[in-house]
Amino acid sequence: MATEDLKQRKRTMPAPVPDFGAGIREEAKNEHPGGDIKHGGLIQLMRVFLFAAYFWACCFTIVATQLLGVPLYWYNKNYYYAYIALTKQSFGLLITTMTQWWSPTLVRISGDASVAGQMKKTADGRVECYFPERMIMIANHQLYSDWLYLWWVAYTNQPQTHGHIYIILKESLKYVPVIGWGMMFYGFIFMSRKMSTDQPRMAHRLKQLKQRHSGPMSGSTGLDPMWLMLFPEGTNASDNGRAKSAKWAEKIGIKDMQHALVPRSTGTFFCLNELKGTVDYVYDCTLAYEGVPRGKFGQDYFTLKSSYFQGRPPKSVNMYWRRFAVADIPLDDLNTFDLWLRDRWYEKDALIEQYVCTGRFPANEVSSNGTTNGTAKNNFIETEVKPKHWWEVGRIFIVLATFGLIANILAKMV
Predict the structure, then answer these.
(1) Where are the alpha helices (DSSP H) in 195-308?
(2) Alpha carbons 244 and 278: distance in angstroms, whole number
(3) Rounded CA separation 314/32 (Å)
(4) Residue 259: which residues within 8 A CB-CB, separation 6 or more?
(5) Rounded distance, CA 232 to CA 9, Å?
């Protein structure tokens, strides 16, 4: 169904808005980049109900599964961390299937020569990434749901790392019932945005990410796999974020950016220094969403209602990947690192400018292994957010169902 929907959207894509020079397009009045509303009021209500039922059923199941595994912590911590990683895989499957069924979209991937041979398209149309088991991932922040697509990338990795994602979040999120409980089990890092308060917390959590385990989910080096996801901008692009970025740029005497926000370097600098010696690379993803007009913000178009209920998700999610060796990053001085990070963000801004003007990030034939044949179209990997097998969703429920079955058998024996 999702594949057919994508094909239908490609056939019905409206004609592009005329280009009036210098790559600047006039925004069509009242035009949504996701197209017209595809579902009427009644269908939208049904989609809301089904979405909520599926999402909350999965979340309750995952948290219940986590609670059942708590005794493992005192029995064998290696098994406990492996068990929690499996429940984290379950949430990765949840958001992957949720997006496939309610918000199908084309994902277009490319990268520079530093990621040569690390991405390929399979015979059945999926993407497989060959990124390392341990890395720090940085990205610009366009939508509240950016993390969802990056978590899916971890699912596509070989070996899969969607059970080893770590995210830095606002402290208030841990108090959200059910979801917040699950995130605390996952070992996510909650920030109050006061460095005096946050630094000891981060040091404690990052120290745990450097510990060696020997459980079934441990990595080949003894260190557990880890993808630490960072958004150095601190917030997603919006009117408010744009104003804060401009104010900060003026304060430190630099030029503000057009599409990205000026990154804050302190937290990223701290994380890199704490994990130095256990992580070899920083992977950088530049994100852009098709159709967002110049000077506008994706968050204002691609809301939960628009993308999941009205049938107006982004026509494409675009990713451009780069890799930087930690050994080559200046980590001895915060000011020097700040300049390094800011230069990477100016490069991101230029990449997004190219995307706004041409509808594509750069494509390098050597950066998309297995998909290039010298033609412009095949310089990119085009795929969908979807699991490898439809039945994988059953993994979310299998532990709780097994416990329930055993409890039922024991109850009948008494």
Answers:
(1) 195-208, 239-252, 266-275, 304
(2) 34
(3) 10
(4) 237, 348, 349, 352, 353, 356
(5) 34
Query: Closest Cα partner for 112 from 348, 253, 322?
Result: 322
Measuring CA to CA, which residue among 234, 168, 240, 162 is closest to residue 199?
Answer: 168
pLDDT score at 299: 93
| SS3 label, residue 23 | coil
Burial of 314-328, coded b for 16+ CB within 10 Å and e otherwise, reads bbbbbbbbbbbebee
Nearest to 309 by CA among 131, 101, 138, 161: 101
Total count of residues recorded for the chain: 414
Strand partners, 382: 108
Asked whether the beta carbons of 110 and 363 are under 8 A apart, the reply is yes
Per-residue pLDDT tens over the stretch 251-285: 999 999 999 999 999 999 999 999 999 999 999 99
Give CA–CA dist 259/348, Å, rounded. 9
- Residue 56 CA from chain centroid, whole number: 20
Q: What's the whole-number average pLDDT of the chain?
A: 88
Model-level pTM?
Answer: 0.88
Strand ranges in 140-261 using DSSP code E only, listed in sequence order: 165-170, 189-191, 226-230
Tens of pLDDT along 82-108? Answer: 999 999 999 999 999 999 999 999 999
User: Residue 349 corresponds to which tokens in the numbers above?
Assistant: 């801004």
- Which residues in the chain land under pLDDT 50? 1-2, 4-29, 367-369, 371-376
pLDDT of residue 381: 95
**What Å distances lie between residue 322 and 137, 282, 370, 384, 390, CA to CA?**
10, 8, 18, 21, 31
The C-alpha angle with vertex 230 and arms to 243 and 79, in degrees rounded to 5, equals 150
Q: Are 233 and 140 in contact (CB under 8 A)?
A: yes
**DSSP letter (8 states) at residue 172:** G
Q: How much is the pLDDT for 2?
A: 47
- DSSP, collapsed to helix, strand or coil, labels residue 166 as strand
Q: Report how far apart, in Å, the C-alpha atoms of 230 and of each of 162, 250, 322 are.
A: 16, 24, 15
